[in-house]
Specification:
This protein has four helices and 20 strands. By secondary structure, the protein is mainly beta. The chain has a single domain, classed as Porin (Beta Barrel), CATH 2.40.160.
Amino acid sequence: MNRISAMVMLAMLAALPASMAAAQDAPAKKDPQETEPRPKPPSPTPTPLDPSQSGAAEPEIKVSLKDGVHFRSTDGAFDIILGGYAGIHYRVFVHRPDDNVRTSPDTWYIRQARPELSGFIYKDFDFRIQLDFPTGPAAIDGTAQDLYVGWRYFPEFSLRVGQFKEPFGQDQTTPDRFLDFDERAEGDRFIPARDIGLMAYGTLAGGIVTYELGFFNGQGRAVLDTNRGKEGAARIRLQPFAGADDASPLKNLRIGLSGTAATVQNGAVGVFNSNTAYLNVNYLTTATVAANLLDGVRRRWGGELTWNYGPVGVRAEAWRRVDSVDTATAVHRHLYTTAWSAQASWLLTGEKKPIEARVVPRNPFDPRTGGWGALEIAARVDRVHLDNDLFTLGIASATGNANVVTGYSLGLNWYLTRNLRISPNVFWEVADDPITFAGGRTDRHFFGGIMRFQLEF
């Protein structure tokens, strides 16, 4: 996979000089990473699946360099995009005890390094191949992130098959490069991310209604299923004033509901082993007991809110997860995990805040012309609560562990250009119960920060 992808990307780069000069100003399509459908490329005449069937000459390929390298055919049937992004972090701990279990040093690391190849072929078929080469916590070198093909003929009904994100969790399904903070909220690790499956999706009523309905393995990214249990996921989003004038304060109001349902067979309770999202503090570790297994139904349901008006953005979501567990003394006991988050951001330089898209500075960074980019401040509070029965059932010890953590985030986003961003964040994480470290030391409060350097290409 890695070698083939690299050869394809090198071949396309070699073609750049031939046609770049003729296509510098070609328009760019909307980022195909967006899960919401986008219009198909325009075409003055129907394009046959095989160009040789038409008897016409082969279409020319033009190249443009806006938001990725676009290789677009003149008949609109093909648009292949070479792009990607990189996120480089420096994380520092101001207050956090260390020991050989609950420790991480101040360090530079590659949080994301994701080259991608995406686009449309024969106008109606889209695809995406995205790899990742991080060096951060729990990094898996060369892992495929998105790897799917799809069909987009009707805006009301499209299909996607392969590996991509399940439609649950507003924070999780927002691409990393469009997040307002350097890391996602505390409860993020308990909701699905990328999985292998099939999804139908579309928009109705002129963009007022968006739906997604998927059928997945339920095992996570790049994992083959080990049992017959599968996971269904669904989300519906309403943007009731989508057709309003751009000046309307409610035009970018969006609300949504989502849910998942799966059957788990003999799953490990180690899924509840938990580290904080920002400073990687291990706050709960399960006991190694063979009789403790997840077995039965796993369900999630949640709600979300997004509202952007001018330079201001507001986002919130809440969800609950239910797991069925067997122990030596209990059968099919339900464990409940709940989480919520709320955040607000403000572009101090006056640009409009888009919904899950690039911020485009009015005055890109250029000291020669006095341009200094766009500046944004953001604040967030979020909380995750694992079931108290993790302790009463003996799945984890109540001594030295915590099952409730609250996070407070304050961030500054400096968008130098539409493709370059620097984001210093400070984080304060608070556990409801003392966490035990080496030498018997306990603590509940942890403070630190992350500096993110992000480049999109």
